[in-house]
Fold this sequence. Notes:
The chain is α+β, with helices and mostly antiparallel strands. Helix content is 29%, strand content 26%.
Amino acid sequence: xxxxxxxxxxxxxDAPCSGLGVLSKxxxxxxxxxxxxxxxxxxxxxxxxxxxxxxxxxxxxxxxxTCSIDPEENEERVAAFLLRHPEYNVDSAERYISPExxxxxxxxxxxxxxxxxDGAFAARLICRS
Length: 129
Ligand SMILES: C[S@@+](CC[C@H](N)C(=O)[O-])C[C@H]1O[C@@H](n2cnc3c(N)ncnc32)[C@H](O)[C@@H]1O
């Protein structure tokens, strides 16, 4: 990773997550979930966000995505990342997605209930140049 420091204009972190957006396909997740697992996952998501951010050139974009509908893994991870990385800003996804999937904060969110799709989340984060 050291060699690739600030090497890329676009980085996608499709993070390991609880999978709570895809329970229709992974019913086992519903029964095997523990609160300790969630704390570990959140730490891993923070670590991976920090590592991925080091690969992005100034002016480049980092997209953080999950297949979870849990705000702890989505909006809250992004908010914590922005506190640790003031060089990053949220870039609204409005130019790239249909308005029905756009959240008030400018993120992508699909809901199994509202959209009859797998639940998923994505945030576009721009590294200041
Ligand atoms: C949501 S999946 C990504 C799927 C991928 N986008 C694809 O289309 O195949 C999350 C991935 O993170 C990997 N992963 C889990 N823990 C990791 C870690 N500590 N560091 C890096 N990757 C990890 C998992 O093996 C899994 O492949």
